[in-house]
Amino acid sequence: MQRQDTIYALPPHNIDAEKSVIGSILQDGNAVSYSIENLIADDFYMPENKAVFQAVTTLNSIGTPIDLMTVSNELQRIGKLDGIGGTAYLLSVIDYVPTTANIKSYVNIVVEKSTLRKLITACKNISNSCYTQEEPLSTILSSAEKQIYD
């Protein structure tokens, strides 16, 4: 296996899975429930998808049904609709999703990529702590464990 230079590598992500999650949410109430139970906005790599998911969670928390119109309205209300590409972006992800029946698979992919990004960040932080040696080893180890397992 050839070593890839990770200095310039993009963080792990899967745009197709993210779009499929958002598209499923906009079409299927079951997808909304499953996604909200298993994801947070920061699990999304693309800022557009993160903003849409945050709008979905806000609407869900106040009992508003989730669909194209309500999400579009919420994004407009908070000033983010234009930033995601407008209603056209929301329509494109609805058209993009192959089937809402596979929401669990789409969510699992998004969670996996998010976890890998979090692990990369933790490793960078741990590495920096080891190089700077500003804390005792026991503190560095404790912090490393917390970052990896929390």
CATH third-level topology: DNAb Helicase, Chain A
Rg (CA only)? 18 Å
Report the oligomer.
Answer: single chain
- Strand share of the residues? under 5%
- Counting DSSP E segments of at least 2 residues, the number of strands comes to 0
Q: Structural class given helices, strands, pairing? A: mainly alpha
Estimate nothing, just give the exact number of structural domains. 1
CATH class: Mainly Alpha
**CATH architecture annotation:** Orthogonal Bundle
- Order of H and E elements: HHHHHHHH
- How many helices? The count is 8
**Low-confidence parts lasting 5 or more residues at pLDDT below 50?**
none
Explain briefly what this protein structure is.
The protein has 8 helices and no strands. The chain is mainly α. The chain has a single domain (15-149), classed as DNAb Helicase, Chain A (Orthogonal Bundle), CATH 1.10.860.
Describe the structure.
The chain is mainly alpha-helical and 150 residues long. It has one domain: DNAb Helicase, Chain A (Orthogonal Bundle), CATH 1.10.860. 69% of the residues lie in helices and 0% in strands. The protein has eight helices and no strands. The chain has helices at 15-25, 29-38, 47-61, 68-77, 81-84, 86-96, 103-132, 137-149. α1 packs across α6 (86-96), α2 runs parallel beside α7 and α7 (103-132) runs antiparallel to α8. It is elongated, with a radius of gyration of 18 Å.
